[in-house]
Amino acid sequence: MVRQQNCQAFSHLTMRIATFNLENLFRRAKVLNLRDSEKTTKLLDKIRQLASLLDEPAYTAPLRAEVFNLSAELREYIDIRKDFGTLGSWRKDTHTERTGFRVSRQAKGRSSWSGQIVFRFEDFSDQQRMNTALVVNSVNADIFCAIEVEGMEALRVFNRSVAATSYSEYIAIDSPNDPRGIDIGCLTRYHISSLITHVFDFVPGTKRRIFSRDCLELAIDRDEDTRIHVLCNHFKSQMGAADESAAKRLEQARAVAAILDRYDLTKQYVVVMGDLNEDISSTFGSLHPLLQKNGLYPVVDPALPMNQRYTHYYEDAGAGRPKLTQLDYIFVSEALRHRITGYGFERRGIHGIDAVAAREGAEPITPFPTVTGPDLSASDHAALWVDLDL
Questions:
Q1: Where along the chain do its domains lie?
Q2: Are 295 and 285 in contact (CB under 8 A)?
Q3: Which residues are bridge partners to 216 per DSSP?
Q4: Which residues contact 30 (CB under 8 A, 6 or more apart)?
Q5: Which of 45, 85, 147, 148 to pair with 382, CA 20 to 30 A apart?
């Protein structure tokens, strides 16, 4: 059993690897920044409906009316960008006083214009950004998998001006699979010697892309004798129909397991980590392809009670109170398994976690003093890290 440790200084022979869903660095799509997750789910479903209507080859009168009504509900959260061609504009209905997107009569169908629905963003406060930095600096990892970042520029500015110790190398792929600015990045004190993106991997026999964002695959060299292969992931969220979301995560877990077939897990240093968006105990079993992969081991023992291994809490409508869950994971190859010297969580960036932890019988925890409200949370996820004796 690996011993859990607190965040603390460690010897120069130890490499610390961590994953953290930052929930963006500087700004976030407004629809994703709501405290009410059910409302977010409903709004995202309506956005998908609107996108489907705008993709129709022929715009009928009923369709135009439906576009107006849907867009009126979504105006606070989205805009419709037209690059060229004819579509329409936002207009106020003089009878209902509602403002929605009015498709013009000249727009006959999807072929009449080029563009897309875009999300409206809201900026974070300086304090919220600094609270995110508190988590990153506290963990002090040598390799840091950063989930939900806006892109390379945001990562560059954060690394240069906010993080206490800048990372020498970093990368983020602007994934075309998700337009909401929640990409996957990686920061490291070592050299990134190679990079493979899986944003264009398809489910065999279909035109559906496997990964909701990416499986960012990196080879990182600490020195000429030590190479770590890192796979950073952000699986499908739990929004939408539960069974469909779980099926998507299962596809993604199978795809990651297939990528691992290229490695000799008994000899090569391989780490799979990220926000996998499902607890290991879920009846859906979407993470089984990773749990059952020969030569791959979870750093945190799945048999531990939830109040010891949690990385997130959510509002359980059925129970009428928040509940703890684990969504974030680090898996290591057989070659690294016996080099683990400890692991831990940084949960102090989560607002309200003290009350939830106390009620669930978890170890007492006090958020950072500057995490004084939901709008100042570093994230609603904890960071998870592992120390390796290399």
A1: 14-26+124-389, 37-121
A2: no
A3: 232
A4: 76, 77, 119, 120, 121, 122
A5: 45
- Which residues, in sequence order, are bridge partners of residue 146? 20, 185
* Number of neighbouring beta carbons within 10 Å of residue 263: 17
Mean pLDDT computed over 123-128: 82
Cβ count near 140 (within 10 Å) = 19
Region of poorest pLDDT, from 126-140, 161-175, 300-314: 161-175
Fold for the domain defined by 14-26+124-389: Deoxyribonuclease I; Chain A (3.60.10)
Neighbours of 239 (CB within 10 A): 17
Instruction: Return the structure tokens found at 111.
Output: 């072929």
Q: What is the largest CA-CA distance in the chain?
A: 73
pLDDT recorded at residue 113: 93
Q: Is 226 in a helix, a strand, or coil?
A: strand
Residue type, 301: D
126-139 and 152-161 helices, crossing angle to 10° = 80
**Mean pLDDT, to the nearest integer, of 265-273?**
98
- In the three-class reduction of DSSP (H, G, I as helix; E, B as strand; rest coil), residue 382 is classed as coil
State the DSSP string of 81-125.
EEEEE--EEEEE-TTT--EEEEE-TT--SGGGEEEEEEE-EEEPP
Question: Could you tell me the two tokens for 147?
Answer: 């989930």
Contacts of 160 by beta carbon, 8 Å cutoff, 6+ apart? 166
Calpha distance 234→21 (Å, rounded): 9
From 175-184, 202-211, 243-252, the region with the lowest mean pLDDT: 175-184
pLDDT at 264: 98
The DSSP letter of residue 343 is E
Distance of CA 101 to the CA centre of its chain: 31
Percentage of the residues of the chain whose pLDDT score is greater than 90 = 71
Buried residues in 188-198 as b, exposed as e (16+ CB within 10 A): bbbebeeeebb
In this prediction the pTM is 0.83
DSSP annotation of 364: P
Identity of residue 286: S
Average pLDDT of the residues in 350-372: 95
CA–CA separation, 82 vs 77, rounded Å?
A: 17
DSSP state of 277: -
CA distance 7 to 346: 7
